[in-house]
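Hi team,

Filling in the usual template for the complex we talked about on Friday. All components are listed, including any nucleic acid strands or ligand strings, so the model treats them as one assembly.

SUBMITTER: L.P.
PURPOSE: interface mapping
COMPONENTS: two
RESIDUES: 355
SEQUENCES:
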Amino acid sequence: MAQPVPTVADLLEQVADPIARQRLHDYLATVAADLPGAARTRHDILAEVSDGLLECYQAHRADGQAPAMAAESAVAGFGDPHRLASGFAGVLAGRAAHRVGLGLVLTGPAVGAVWVATFAGRTGSDWVTQVAAMPSVVPGLAVALAVAVPAALLAALGTSATAYRRPLQALSRYLPLPPRTAASLALVATAGCVAADAGLLFGLLGWAVAGIAWTPLALLAGTASLVRVTVVAMCARRVGTLWAASG
Amino acid sequence: MRAESLKGHLDGLLLAVLEDAPRHGYAVIEALRNGSGGTFDLPTGTVYPALRRLEAAGLVHGAWSDAAGRRRRVYHLTPTGRQALAEQRRTWRQFAGAVSAVLGGGAA
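RESULT (copied from the run log):
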């Protein structure tokens, strides 16, 4: 069975001098306070930074520095703890933006197809006619999609997760996008998606008000949009937190 | 040399350092410093997030392993990372050649 990731306390136990140990602990506590993201991710990052800080401290001790001076040198070598945490937040923001963008790009056509089928079934139109009619059926849908789709594509393709892949290397001058930019695009795409889904759901409510029975397809479309809005809102909250922490 | 001077080249340098052997974060920093004769002495806080970014890009893979009785996170180059490193080298040779041609010889 794999050994667990070491904790900060485990690592600092190796520092005998109490003043040095407290200095290193205070530095790591500042980093920990600024680190955003899931608990497991924060623990993993902090363990790695702690290990590196301990290595740096031990290197200065091996050079002959006294414990307190070695701790100060190690902390100075690592740099501003807020900036260090912000750097990690940037990486996490880029990763979250990629996931949100990819999720929207992959679910968009599927959810859209169910809605088109729903309205086509109601009006008796063929698919092509119904797709063309959707913007007039749901006000604001065209604008929401015009905003959401490009933003989602950029968030999905423009982050480090994909920007180094061969087909995109021609754009290497512009990619990868800075993490905050990718996160902003993910938030814009989310807002557009929520607006589009909200418009479609209001359309469905309009049917109920008009006494039009919901077909099974309409129920499926409504459920798909409700689930997507909920999941997307939760993800947007995380992206927003990471965006703020990476500033 | 300040970290800002390395902007745009840091990724390639980190990939090159990992080319020969897997290393943990602090070892990467030391290899950069020693390999450059002390020119690249980066704040440690710059390198750790950069390694995580390269991992998110699939260019390196990081995993916890036991080394000399110590549990540490070690990074190694992935096949995609090797391709990216080759591309970085090609781009650098073009850039360096063009700059040298324009700047000319001059007095040392």
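MY TAKE: Chain A has ten helices and no strands. The CA atoms of residues 151 and 188 of chain A lie 6 Å apart.

Thanks, L.
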